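Note to self: keep these together.
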Amino acid sequence: MNNSTSATGNAKNRKKLKGHRLLCSPSRVLHLRQIPSDATEAEVLSLVLPFGKVTNILMLKRKRQAFLEMAAEEAAVNVINYYAPAAPLLRNQPVFIQYSNHRELKTDNLPNQTRAQAMLQALNAMQSGSWAVTSASDAGGGLCPGLGCVLRIIVGNVFYPVTLEMLHQIFSTFGSVLKIITFTKNSQFQALVQYDDPRSAYYAKMTLHGRNIYTACCTLHIDFSKFTSLTIKYNNEKSRDFTRLDLPSGDGQIYMDQPIAVAYGTQNSIFPSYTGAAGFTPAMGFAQGAGHLIPPVPGALGSLALTTPVAPGQMTYPGVVANSVLLVSNLNPEAITPHGLFILFGMYGDVHRVKIMFRKKENALIQMADANQAQLAISHLDGQRLYGRVLHATFSKHHTVQLLREGQDDQGLTKDYSNSPLHRFKIPGSKNFQNIFPPSDTLHLSNIPSFITVDDMKNLFASTGCTVKAFKFFQNNCKMALIQLGSVEEAVHALIELHNHDLGQNHHLRVSFSKFTI
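Structure:
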């Protein structure tokens, strides 16, 4: 019994030491395990391409394993260090990477390696700057077809806002980004990103496709666009030409060339809904302890300016500290009230305090529940027309809105809404988190009592000075309806005036922006 126990213990120790040696003894050769059976050679190679050149590859598809030989040991070390906190994902499945006990790969005359070697040769040709390669496509690799400088990105599972600046930081890691256009289609946030060369676009696609900007949300679905170049008329929060800083800002709305507008005006989403691998933190995610979205790999990738939140809901952006307090300017002092700002900004988060400046009533401070909600409000309301003016929203240098001291009077310009029953997002997991949409001319109405008619609702909204263009009750639920008004600005005004309006018998109307039109 003792001999058996001793033998078992020695075996365990040998296995433990072997694993320790594999983890701690660097080698140019990397061993990849649990590769999805349908993963391609290009996808496997994409996991390590940003870190350096790959000089050899051995694919063992039946065993769901692969060996990759890097040109330099330093590159292999960077791969291991980067993926140590969280396993990378291929087709939403975690892949485990460790050092191999082989110092180099010998693949001469091995069967079933033609495709993998052809793909590697094509990638090496790309790294050397030559794009006149056909071996990968001849071998069935599918690398060359559709290759271009423009990527189409669809962001799925958008829980936190994604901005043009954020996309620029992420995609600039792989090369020089020339132009970006962002837009919303079929209630999905989408973007077109143009690089100065197709190699950068390829690396970005292969590395970022399927990754999350934040942990478990904001998933990037990336494909090559059919467009070879983008033409941008305005530099604003929706579109940007980084080669033309002289372009005007326009009115804050997106402007696309006619071919792009036509193509994307009739095209449905090409990606299904994202379902992440349970229990694994995506490599792109803001995981605690991970310093950057993309690794600072010497000679391959620079570190992104986006950093890990120091606390839940706290993010830092280049040149500005994100916090929960917004500075809103260019307001109409004749029409704006703290209640109006509370209702409007409350569409994108729970507003705790509002302060309209006593001496300069065109400006106001709005304190949201957290920085993420503040960013959400900025992304949807900055540039929106309100009472005849285009409001501007940005982060404030203040981190809290001070209430009045006892005896002070500012004529009701400072209000505390911390305990308001009208907060939309106080219940974790509420459906309200899934129904956040930009301002539109169509409003979603709910909590309508059965005795209210179509004419009653039309007259109610007309009483606010709005033009009612269409009204429709939901077919299967007469407590809800859609109403289309004369403009987005009219809809914003009506939402402020009528959200929580008493319709009688203790039925208070709920109003929000709709993703649908009538």
